[in-house]
Amino acid sequence: MLKRLRWSVALIGVLSMADGFAAEAGPQAPSEMAALYPRIGTWQVVMRSAPSASLPKGGIDKGVMVMKKGPGGFSIVQEFSSHGASGDVVGQSYAWWDAKAKAYKSVWCDNMQGCVDFTTTVTGNSWMVELNGEASGKKVHTTIRATMSADHNSIHEEVANAYDGGPARVETVSDYKRVVGHGAARETHPQ
What is the pLDDT of residues 34-45, one digit of tens each? Predict the structure, then answer.
């Protein structure tokens, strides 16, 4: 019996070492991805839109955002849905660290506008996106600024648009609250 136990312990040790070597040999997600991992989890969002050409009275939308790691932790994947003054919006995005560009790259697709790719600047718990597009025949420069709370359980986001080179105006303010038990902040560290 003791002999069999020794062989079992030895076999477990060899298998553990083999697993360790396999993990070390495979590609690892870039360390820069750790800056995005605190976003992982399920979030409820309330979006308040100021009056605009597309929403003359402004309005409120409510929704859910689910963020999770992509394969191997090389990306984060967002599933988003909301309903309200803007209609029913369903979107998905991927964000990753592009080592060649030394920048966070993303692509966002939704049922209202199609797809757009962009670069995100991350500084601590804040991030900013700038992108150019078109709406109703006008050129639009959009700036998105977001900040996550120190406890990683809320996000405040403002979306400002400038039309045809005019001044930027905040058109949407969104507040996200983490849904407890669905990827709480303590569960967001890389595996």
Answer: 999 999 999 999
